[in-house]
Amino acid sequence: MWWGGRGQSFNIAPQKEEPEMGSVQGSKMPEPRSRQLSSCLASGCLPGEQILAWAPGVRKGLEPELSGTLICTNFRVTFQPCGWQRNQDTPLSSEYDFALINIGRLEAVSGLSRVQLLRPGFQLKFIPEEILLHGRDFRLLRVGFEAGGLEPQAFQVTMAIIQARSQSNQAQQYAGITLSKTGQGSRSRKPPIPLLETLEDWETERKRQGAQGWRVSTVNERFDVATSLPRYFWVPNRLLDSEVRRAFGHFHQGRGPRLSWHHPGGSDLLRCGGFYTASDPSKEDIRAVESMLQAGHSDVVLVDAMDELPSLADVQLAHLRLRALCLPDSSVAEDKWLSALEGTRWLDYVRACLRKASDISVLVTSRVRSVVLQERGDRDFNGLLSSLVQLLSAPEARTLLGFQSLVQREWVAAGHPFLTRLGETGASEEAPVFLLFLDCVWQFLQQFPADFEFSEFLLLALHDSVRVPDTLTFLRNTPRERGKQSGQFNSYTQVYTPGYSQAPAGNSINLQLSVWDWDLRYSNEQILQFQNPGYNPEHCPDSWLPRQQPNFMGPGPPSSMWLFSRGALTPLNHLCPWRDSPSLLAVSSRWLPRPAISSESLADQEWGLPSHWGACPLPPGLLLPGYLGPQIRLWRRCYLRGRPEVQMGLSALTISGLQDELSHLQELLKKWTPRVSPEDHSKKRDPNTILSQSH
């Protein structure tokens, strides 16, 4: 399964002399073992990578069992089967590799019942007969050690893994790594997608979206407004940078309102942090804040991003339960597995995200208005919802290039704290929000297989890339940290020279490398699998140029402000919490939301539909996902990758199981059948309403 492996291409520079074995194993090995280890080195060690310990063993738990060598380095733990040679072009792309930061749990086993959980700083109490490495990416490596006088090596390699995990950090793992494929590290090269590190990138993206009422602000060029924001972002044309600077000071962490995406119909999707209510803004600052939130529109909807969504602690707990359930050695009985899956709450949280994103998509596409996503930190669910809304509303975001650009803009450049959320700093705020987002996107691929140009293999590559320290894309919390680590600037006051220039002397980190350089980390055959063979290009416009305003979008109510909460729109007296005006909104009754029945969606309220889509077609390009009951599925190829019998369909041993798989395949084939025209596609009914009516 190639999707279990990860890596990139580096110079292969085997050391001429045998490396030291470190504090765990300092004595020289006998000559036969030395030759065996030299063979391991010749198969592809990275420059700066040192072998700490090794031991002969047998990979167990999978069929067939493989004899080989377990090797621990200062970078990874790898199992090398006998007679297997690593690909010289992709020395990290192997299903047998576990980066040290990917090891979530390490266990030593002796006998039938003696098990020791090995944490950093622990001492091994016995010589293990086998060890189990539980990967954070849902893989499991189980290695049994050979008998016959090799017990000390089993002890030494296990202790080496314990020490390497405790001593490793990102700075050490980057030491000595240089890019060299076809000489690309010695000259500038064009990035695969715009990384949004320059003013020119932001201006190009603004023009591509057709956001004429917006401009690129340079107020945060030295990160003195908000250290977690990018150096550039979009603000309304009529606002001066001095006004932007003052207004952003009244939001949590300085993350004020800014444009996330401009809909071709005229609506604007914004995101911002929570109001800093303890501040005391002047009347001018309040007017500037309101002007940012309104973005030139008379109709404004403020969306509480955390409303009806799980907390960070909930996401973390659900992910831990899911990982424990999906490992091959799970103790849950087969007849109780589905109820245990439901008990993890992971699919419930996926469902909640899809429903929220679906409602916001309707808000954006039903009327010309400003929709503002507000989250206290503006670094987690704002990015998730904004990304999902664009995937549902913008066909260009569903292309291979468009999706990668979307992730770069809404997650990487926007300052999502990857390092903290993925648990690499030991902080208590660990929560895999980005992995939750990838699961939501996978649900879209299952429900609309002909609308997306990319396949789930791209999602798997992204899922696995967050655990491999080969790029700075997912291993820093902010653009500022990423830029300092890569040597792009040395201080806040230094003028930043962006782009793809030669790395400074003495800097071992390659500035050109990003997670989007797939050709440096995956083979051409693997990259071809990123393409969805069932994609229908008619679902995406040929050009990314702005389209004319569709006639289905009408103006919103005049001078209206709304709060979207719990699936309903509620009128607001004012947008800013510092206003104390007692006046009420003068809004016509036809604009006021009516009580929603249980089976009614926000789309029913917005378009006045009688709980079905037969009377009015969906806006062109808009997808509304199903999120009820069995419409939400388990991402088997990702979460059950440690169970090959499930991946190969061997679990369907009964007639009913085979019938279920056949029905699922037939359903996918129907969805892949090209539609007659986009108009016919737009007339399909809301899947959630259909499902609720059938019940």
Automatic annotation (TrEMBL):
InterPro entries: MTMR12-like_C, Myotubularin, Myotubularin-like_Pase_dom, Prot-tyrosine_phosphatase-like. Pfam families: 3-PAP, Myotub-related. Transmembrane segments: none annotated. Residues 196-639 form the Myotubularin phosphatase domain. GO terms for cellular component: cytoplasm; membrane. Residues 677-687 have a biased composition (Basic and acidic residues). GO terms for biological process: phosphatidylinositol dephosphorylation. Belongs to the protein-tyrosine phosphatase family. Non-receptor class myotubularin subfamily. This is Myotubularin-related protein 11.
